[in-house]
Amino acid sequence: METFLYITAVYGVYLGIGVFVIGMAWRTYQWATTPKSPVRLGMFPKPKTGAARVLKMLKDTLIAPQSARIEPLMWAFAFAFHVAALGAFVGHGRLIHEFTPLVNWLGEDGMATFAAWSGGTAGILMLAAVVFWIARRTFGPFKQLSVPEDYLLLALLFGVIIMGDHMRFVGTIHAATYREWFQSLLVFKPEIPDDILRSTTGWSLGAHMLFTDLFLIYFPFSKLVHAIGAFSANLVRSE
Amino acid sequence: METQQMTTLAGVLDKKMNRQLKQYLDICARCAICKDACHQYVATQDFKYLPARRAELIRQIYKKYFTKTGEFVPALYEARDPDENLLDELYESAYACTGCRRCMYYCPFSIDTAWILSVAKAILIAAGKGNEMLGQLADAALFKSDNFEMFKDVIVDGFKDIELQVKELTGDPDAEIPVDKQGADILYVALAGAHSILPAAVIFHEAKASWTLSYFEAANYGYFFGDAVKARQIADRFMDEAKRLGVKEVVITECGHAYRVAEIFHEAWSGEKHSFKVRHILEVIDEYITDGRITVRPDAITEPVTYHDPCQVGRNGGIFEQPRNIVCALASDFRDMTPNREQQWCCGGGGGLVAISEMDEFRLKSGTIKAEQIKATGARIIASPCENCRLQMEGLNDSMELGIEVKAIMDLVLEAMPLAGSSAKVTPTD
Ligand code: HEM
Ligand code: SF4
Ligand code: SF4
After folding, report:
1. Which atom of ligand 1 sits closest to the CA of residue A130?
2. What is the pTM of this model?
3. Amino acid B423: pLDDT
């Protein structure tokens, strides 16, 4: 298990984050250096001021009210997924440093309960959304439109989430132990705590990280670059 | 197909590449939210008309030729060469699109599928597979300007005939259709035929406007064909005229795509800022009514009237209220369709489709939703400024027995104006 964990939860993490950061920067650089179309592609009605334009772009990107109107169910799952993913991302910040003010406020037990509930909810919402997306892509025009990339991403996400959920709902290791591991990565003195090596949950962490590493490595080469592109593309809508 | 030729075709994509296009090709989630935005897909349930699918064909070439991942693992993206099969699929998807951009309205990333398809058309043209009819119409327009001396007398004679009708209607023997008038305020660009000249001439006369009529028509088949150079040259014909005459504004007739070409595309294509304003005739008429420069009888029409927003005038041109103001000024029972304005359904007649006879059946079928919408209003008259829309709705009227009358807004205005001349109702024909 130690070797497996060193590959997925140490070297894989470095590689994954490295490829992700450089890849996204490269992609953004490519966009920024490609000349803009001289033709204005905006549609009407257009916001009158620059500030109103930015506000509309943020609304279109973060809430997508038009998409909600045309396919409410899809919108609901997509919205739930993205909010939950953001929540989960923020939650993982505990690996870097305990959210001390929150602990002071809620107390040790309160924090554990809060983390269990919020993390658990996010994990379930994400899982539900991914299952919905996979199911949706198995029939009719959605299937016809899908390409292997779509399934690959959903499969990787499914892996990330299901193993994350396993660690949260079944695993016996606590945040403090994971933090020890992650902080050791941050200072480039990687070490995997014995608690993890001795527990079967170690395998879950390994699998969670394997999927995460692959997901991060593939991310910049996939349609998920919409995480950045959505903002600029929606800004073009009102130019 | 030779590898060489396929590389050349992919090169067309490279030449047309810009930031927006690149982002559109990179970020589409293939979520298919755009599916039910497209009237053609909804009416036919045919996969090739699903907006994201149309764009996907271009994405397949892009992935294969312009991304490393697509080059090494094409299967992951279903990346393909622009071979005969792909081009045939592209032809059907691209030339069917009316460019209504309703899909863009609903897409969470505002992906402009019609813009991607303009590149598709450029690739098809480079492969010698552009739509023949649209290509011929574009060439005919350019032939007219290249051999202008040959046509000039015929054109002017035609204007003189219409001028007689203007005199009769206005009761003013000095009423005229000015042509080539240096220093006029307005250069009015009409369509071929009396129907878009006569009402405007009467309205300009009554408003005592300083105007002159362009020798050239506003319609632009180069734009529908997908050849940006020809499209620009076709628009240049009257833009150059406007420069030469020193007018303050170019006013485009009741035509959707011509207005968008003149107002939005032309400056970008020519790389030159206009020294004049570009306005749509309905903006001008609305202003004339508001300012009291012309009057219309408020109860001229008592039958229920509805209004169809042409995509290129409304969602893509920004003119929503002026036509409604005009119709409300002369009709007592105005009923909007649902949805309307920026969410309005395309009638199915745009994109040059009305000129392509092999598309007739498909085109009428794609108008089913529009027909239902019209029916639901209970209106007897449908007013709409775009000639393509009107042709389509007349087709729908016949094929689906809607029992409506399809009218240009200018014609309604003409009928509602108290004129000194002949009181007989005029229905100008070509
Ligand atoms: C912060 C900006 C982001 C915005 C505005 C955004 C918006 C969207 C929208 C509107 C869709 C299309 C609707 C859908 O397919 O559900 C979508 C799809 C998707 N997004 Fe995002 N997203 C963002 C970031 C991310 C991130 C960081 C991830 C990675 C976890 C992600 C993962 C996905 C996935 C996997 C899908 C596609 C699901 C499918 O296969 O259909 N998104 N996103
Ligand atoms: S709605 Fe937009 S992102 Fe979704 S498939 Fe259509 S074009 Fe792509
Ligand atoms: S622009 Fe209109 S016709 Fe073309 S794909 Fe989009 S919705 Fe369909």
Report:
1. 38
2. 0.94
3. 55
